[in-house]
Amino acid sequence: MNTDIVQQAFCKLYPDKILNYSPTINYSGKFKGYNANVQLNKFRGEVTFNLSKKWQEVSREIQIGLLQSLMTKIFKQHKRTTEIELYELFLKNLSNTTPRTKSNPILEESFNRVNEKYLMGLMSMPNFELRNSTQLLGTFEYSTDTVTITSWLLEHQQLLDYVMYHELLHKKHKFSSQGSRHCSHTKEFREEEHKFEQWEMLEKQLNSLVRTQRRKKSKSLFRLF
Ligand SMILES: [Zn+2]
User: Fold this and answer.
1) Can you list the domains of the chain with their CATH numbers?
2) 166 C-alpha to center of ligand 1: Å?
3) Mean pLDDT across 160-169
4) 11, 47, 175, 178: which could join 21 in a potential S-S bond, CB 3.0 to 4.6 Å?
């Protein structure tokens, strides 16, 4: 696999540094849409970029922007490049052109409340899906612009809004919540999340409800968000 593109992305992002990890890039068919993730193995000195196959058809500059954007997340050094801007523009256009096909009236209402109160009404409405899950409270998938919420949350309006807000922050920060938690829940993300009224109390309520749901359903491991 040709890893020149990783080296090139790194050099343009951090011109004074040397990439100390041996890079791998995989284009995989298992991703939906334009998803991608990165894994850093410090112990083995390896960094692996997994990209949806669809990225192969996208221009090299935009792919470099994607790689750089993933690099700033693992190396925790925030920087902007022309390529990152191109990449973000590409994603933005993608989400604007994704047709809104799925919805749910209760989730739309929750979205409207949260958008108005915490996002200055600036966010465009995504697709909504419900799922019966004790594993995940909610997810956001960038490539299909879809917020998925577990159905038992519909009975708890405040908690629903809190989870909705969390998922919409993923949309705002342009990062699907299904990727690595380390990458998507940055310090900035958490700070913004904690602007939600009474978030600490809601967090406790959620945890205890989740435990109840788990006892009801299964013993499988729970992954919050
Ligand atoms: Zn999340």
Assistant:
1) 4-97 (3.30.2010), 105-216 (3.30.2010.10)
2) 6
3) 96
4) 47
